From TrEMBL:
Cofactor(s) annotated in UniProt: pyridoxal 5'-phosphate
Listed name of the protein: L-seryl-tRNA(Sec) selenium transferase
Function summary: Converts seryl-tRNA(Sec) to selenocysteinyl-tRNA(Sec) required for selenoprotein biosynthesis.
Taxonomy, superkingdom: Bacteria
InterPro entries (UniProt xref): PyrdxlP-dep_Trfase, PyrdxlP-dep_Trfase_major, SelA-like, SelA_trans
GO cellular component: cytoplasm
Organism: Arcobacter nitrofigilis (strain ATCC 33309 / DSM 7299 / CCUG 15893 / LMG 7604 / NCTC 12251 / CI)
Any one GO MF annotation of this record: L-seryl-tRNA(Sec) selenium transferase activity
EC numbers: 2.9.1.1
Keywords, comma-separated and alphabetical: Cytoplasm, Protein biosynthesis, Pyridoxal phosphate, Selenium, Transferase
Family per similarity comment: Belongs to the SelA family.
Pathways per UniProt: Aminoacyl-tRNA biosynthesis; selenocysteinyl-tRNA(Sec) biosynthesis; selenocysteinyl-tRNA(Sec) from L-seryl-tRNA(Sec) (bacterial route): step 1/1
Amino acid sequence: MSLLKSIPKIDKFVSKSCFDGYSINLITKISQVVIENLRIEILQNNINEINEDKLVEEVLETYKELVAPSLQKVINATGIIVHTNLGRSLLSKQSLEKAIDIATSYNNLEYDLKKGQRGERYAHIVKTLQALTGCEDAIVVNNNASAVFLIMNTFAKNKEVVVSRGELVEIGGSFRVPEVMAQSGAILKEIGTTNKTHLRDYENAINENTSMLMKVHKSNYTIEGFASDVTFEDIVKVASQNEVIDYYDMGSGHMIDLPFNLSSAEPSILKIMEYNPSLLSFSGDKLLGSVQAGIIIGKKELIAKIKKNQLLRMLRVDKITLSILEDTLNSYLTNDLKNIPTLNMLYTKIEVLQKRANKLKTLIDTICKCEVIKNQTLIGGGTTPNKKIPTIALTLEYKDFKPNKIEELLRRNNLITRIENEKVLLDFRTIQEDEIEKIESIIKRVFN
């Protein structure tokens, strides 16, 4: 009971000079919890003395943990360019600086400067997308999942959408095409088999309640062997002949041809637009190399109907997103591709990666055993499933430490690596030139 009487009073405890400069409200809340825990420990006979210095230390440690930013900068040494867990595409500093200038000022987000009246927020990216893709109109929502949902809800509520069984995709976070369609009010009409779908399957599925023929990008898998599907070009033709909508959920979507012969399997947005489709949707923060967004392009009368859907207000994007996206699209329009970090990493030559790897090896080979090797990596983000691209990596070994231990030590210092063939790899496909000395510093700090 004497210990209970010695428990410090909250008001007196938080008035200590060691808490000067901190938020007194937060310090008080934390102190209440700490002191209540102390009371419980005393009642359970787990302690026999009260050390106020330790209580202060516990309060301050909790305070610092609470106010420390959870979202932190990391170095991506995995080699996966569009890494979903690490923020997908890097934003251009130039684009972000322009967005900061716009966002910290009043702007014409929904104001037409020429007419002096209310304008439309989507107009800021429409003209560029029209010039780039030849589309009639466009709209932007907060991600491609929203785009899929909005299109389904606008055109296929209580109507059938025809989709191949081989394209009933589930992507990360349990996002499933059939469930999204059900939530939107659309009725899924499955055709074909898992491995084979024919053009006649689409033709035979069309009836008076059919609204749309939909193709879905296989973002995280491929079907090999005795398999075939129908090209979107053929789907567009059948849809046109039967006066229904054709729609391609491209998932990632890229504006220009990809290196390493990837474009033969993954046609670009510009190639798809040659088929004169009704609607396309794709992500902004994957191979396009911009901010998170779901971009819908297509026929003017269809986009106009989407704009009238009341759900659009819940899914629309803000001035920062529009500013960054507009700048990225302008970079494509002016062929200023150096302003798109995702493309820079994708197109960096092996010789450059080799030079960077050798530089780091020279800086750390007295600390770790390391070797520069040729390797392969994935682009990531559901962009080019099972298609690997060449890269250069640096293997890391340290004394008798197991790979998992090395990976953990580096990860705790915000250096994210990958383990392959029982070795930790630093993959230079995603390591920036200005990060080499930072990696050197981390390795010296961890292993010295």
